[in-house]
Structure formats: C-alpha cells, structure tokens
Write a structure and sequence with these properties.
Layout: E1 7-11, H1 16-31, E2 35-42, E3 49-50, E4 56-62, H2 73-76, H3 78-96, E5 105-108, H4 113-121, E6 125-130, H5 134-145, H6 185-192, E7 203-206, H7 214-223, E8 226-228, H8 259-266, E9 273-277, H9 286-299, E10 302-306, H10 309-312, H11 319-326, E11 329-332, H12 337-341, E12 346-351, H13 355-363, E13 368-370, H14 377-387, E14 391-393, H15 404-416, H16 418-438, H17 443-453
Parallel strand pairs: 1-2, 1-5, 2-4, 5-6, 6-7, 7-8, 9-10, 9-12, 10-11, 12-13, 13-14
Antiparallel strand pairs: 3-4
C-alpha cells in the first residue's frame, strides 16, 4: 500500500446494517492509500483505536443517550439524537482540522442529513453514501418531492404506483412507509428527510452496481452526480484482492466461524440445504414462526435456520430436537452467513430480503425465497422476483400472514422446479457481473479510484 495521503471521515448511521457497508468501503479506501477515520455515534464511549490490519482509525462520539439506555431509543427520540450528535460531530471535526493531516471529506449516511450541514459549515467535501438500493431511495425521493402521495388508507382504492425506470408497483411492493399515511411516522421521517438537503452533496455513492439497476441508475444520474461502488461484500467472497477481508469487522476482533454449523453443512449433499434467516431485527409472530417451521418440515429438505435466542421459544415444541435427532435440520443462534451462502451444500435462501442479505446471496449465486417484512424489503422482493428473476416471493394473506402451504410451495419451486432452474442461471449471471464490477477495472472499482484520486 502506498503511504496514506488524503484523510477522509466516514460517518455511518449507527445501526449494524448501515455500519457494515460503510466499514467495507473504508477498507477499500484505506487499501487504496487514503487515511480513513470511522466515526460511530454511540451511547457507549470508548478510547479511539487504530485497526492494525487496515490502518483505519475508529472514534466514538456521543449520541445524547445514557449508557444504560437501549440503542434503539434513538428511533423513538430522533430530535435528541440529532441535537446531541450534531454538537458532537461539529466538535470532533473541528478538532481533527487542527491536526497535521486534517480531513478533506466526509462520507456520511443520508439518514443523517444534519451531518451534511455540519460538514459544509466546516468546509469539507461532502459525500452521501446510501447503503440502501436506488430502487428504495427513488420511492422516498418522490415522496419528499410531493410527486407521489402516500395513500390515507392502503385498503381503499388500491392502485398501481408508477415511478420512472420502475415496473408498476402494487401497494404490497412499496416500502412499508409508503403504503399508508401515519404508519411508522418516525421512521417515515427518517427515510424521507434524507432528501431534504441532498442537493448540497458534492457526490452521491450507493451500495449497488451499474448492471444491477441500470434504468434506475440512469434516471438518478440525470438528477445528481451519482456513482455506484458496490457490492460492498467482504473481498474474500468477491474479487479476493483484500484476502484478509473475510467478514464485516476490521480484523482486530476475530470471530471464528461456528465450526459445528459448517461441519453439519459439509455432511450434506450439494444444493440440498434450505438456509433460513430473517435478519437481526425482524421478529416474526409466534404463529408465523410455527407456520414457517411446519412448512420447512413439510418440504422434506435439509435445513439450517438462524434463530436468535429471543425468538427460539416461538418454535413448535420438539421441532429443534426432532431435526437434530433425525439429522435433517439445525437451528443455530448465530450463523456465519457468508460462509453458509458460499457453501456447496446450500440450495436456496429463505430471507426477509434486507439489502445486505440480498446482495450477499446475489454475489454468491444463491436463489431466494422472499418473505419481506417491512422498510425496503417488499420492493427488494419485487425486483428479486419480477426484474432480476432470481427468486420467488411468498404471497401473504391480507394481514401479512403466510401459510405453510405457500412457504413450502415457494421452497420446492426454487429447489426443484423448472422456474428454479432459470433462477439459478440468472443469479449466476448476476454473480459474475457483481464480481466484475468490484474487480480491478470494473465499474464500481473505477468509481472508487476516481474518488481516491481527488485526495492523492
């Protein structure tokens, strides 16, 4: 690596699904020669440290909450978070500017538009980095602009929503905040307000790649200076130009893969295991958990299911024990997802369709069964099924409940159906395009190089 010259600050929204893609970009910027300082807004203050592997400096700044308060309190009291973090960020950048290698740019998550204002006030080059896909951001943009009106009641006069460069979307395809006025008011404000001052950003980056959302990207490029720099998945599973980059941490706190999970997986035939995981936030109802378990058992396939301890009691009595005893299934509280998706035994991925999980599956060539819950997940699922054709989405009843018959039907279709064969071909094509984009000379790699060149 050449000697670090330009210094950039990276400021993720303090939620793991947003932090991970920011860390991945930081690694690539550092390896290309920039000095990177990662700023985490937190109620748990710690001493600054430098990652030995990537030379990334990590600082925490105070987010306005006390150490005993739950991290998600910031969702319920956004103004408290904004006011305190604005002060903390201003103080931090002001101090950094007095050092021998002052920062020249701030890369921030547009979920925190106040960060753009702070950076502009302090004369930094400002880069908005969206960790969500354009396909969700475009919907939020039109809500902010007033060119799409969120219905008062999603049950009255349901219509198809039309957006530039999009297929027609039913209300079930829209992000959950865009279906009905007044649903999730605080989170609605969070996702829509990211566009309140975005026009002031010098550059906009997104965790996607040109060939994945070409029509949407073209439309967005006509509005702003936008560059795609994804997929921001650890290098081991893509181009392998950063061989030490095997997961989303900075290499200083080694978490070894759960060998018992990987050993169990290795004992199964190729493409025979259904992997099930609904992310770190989604909490299915007890009724839906039981229904999902019965569907998996009904298909007769081997399965690996990642279930948090807090959710385990929702499973049917004896379900875990029977699967273990008969050796057709394993329920684990933590699963090394990238290792599992890259394993030959994995046949499909039953997922909530969060963007990070979607990108991981796509990069590793695994077809999907989508069970979206909220936020951008329904829109991701629409593209998975009808645009990219790399999976199938379950059809839910009116209130969102999905029957065991429907879940089982979708799993069988992906694992053994004729459409499933096409899905595998399509996801393999996207896997190749994803690797090309981030490999040396690829579209995303060039965009990262162009940004680095501004400061070296």
């Amino acid at each position: 690596m050449s000697e670090a010259s330009g210094h950039v600050l990276v400021f993720p929204y303090p939620f793991q699904g947003h932090i991970n893609p920011m860390i991945q970009l930081s690694k690539r910027l550092s390896k290309k020669g920039l000095t990177v300082t990662l700023i985490i807004a937190s109620n748990n203050q710690r001493e600054p440290y430098t990652s030995d592997v990537y030379s990334i400096i990590v600082h925490t700044i105070h987010d306005g909450f006390l150490s005993h308060e739950h991290p998600q309190t910031k969702f319920n009291e956004p103004q408290r978070f904004i006011n305190s973090t604005t002060r903390s960020l201003t103080d931090f950048i002001s101090r950094e500017k007095l050092k021998s290698n002052p920062p020249k740019a701030l890369i921030y998550d547009p979920f925190m538009p106040f960060a753009l204002d702070v950076a502009k006030e302090l004369d930094l080059y400002v880069v908005a980095y969206s960790t969500q896909p354009w396909l969700a951001s475009l919907v939020y943009y039109h809500i902010n602009e007033g060119t799409y009106d969120v219905p008062d009641d999603r049950h009255e006069n349901p219509t198809l929503a039309s957006f530039p460069a999009f297929p027609l979307l039913s209300q079930n395809d829209l992000p959950s905040f865009a279906r009905e006025k007044g649903s999730y008011p605080l989170l609605f404000e969070l996702v829509v307000n990211q566009f309140s001052n975005l026009w002031r950003a010098d550059l906009i980056l997104c965790n996607t790649f040109d060939q994945l959302e070409p029509k949407v990207v073209k439309w967005m490029s006509d509005q702003w200076l936008v560059k795609n720099i994804g997929p921001m998945v650890p290098s081991k599973f893509l181009d392998n130009r950063l061989p030490e980059d095997k997961d989303y941490d900075l290499g200083d706190f080694k978490t070894e893969p759960d060998e018992s999970v990987l050993r169990w997986l290795a004992s199964k035939p190729a493409k025979s295991v259904v992997y099930v995981a609904f992310g770190t936030l989604a909490a299915l109802s007890e009724k839906q958990m039981k229904e999902t378990a019965m569907a998996i058992r009904q298909t007769g396939y081997n399965f690996l299911w990642s279930v948090r301890d807090s959710e385990r009691s929702k499973l049917p009595s004896g379900f875990v024990e029977e699967a273990l005893e008969k050796d057709y299934g394993l329920v684990a509280k933590w699963v090394p997802q990238l290792e599992v998706l890259s394993h030959d035994s994995t046949g499909c991925f039953v997922t909530h369709c969060g963007w990070n999980s979607t990108l991981e599956a796509l990069c590793l060539g695994v077809p999907l069964v989508g069970m979206p819950q909220w936020t951008d997940q329904p829109t991701n699922a629409k593209f998975i099924e009808d645009v990219w054709k790399i999976g199938v989405r379950v059809k839910a009843h009116e209130e969102g409940f999905v029957s065991k018959e429907e879940i089982a039907r979708c799993i069988v279709e992906v694992m053994d159906g004729e459409k499933g064969k096409e899905m595998r071909k399509n996801v393999e094509k996207l896997k190749v395009l994803a690797r090309e984009a981030i490999s040396e000379g690829g579209t995303s790699d060039k965009n990262i190089d162009e940004f680095v060149a501004l400061w070296t």
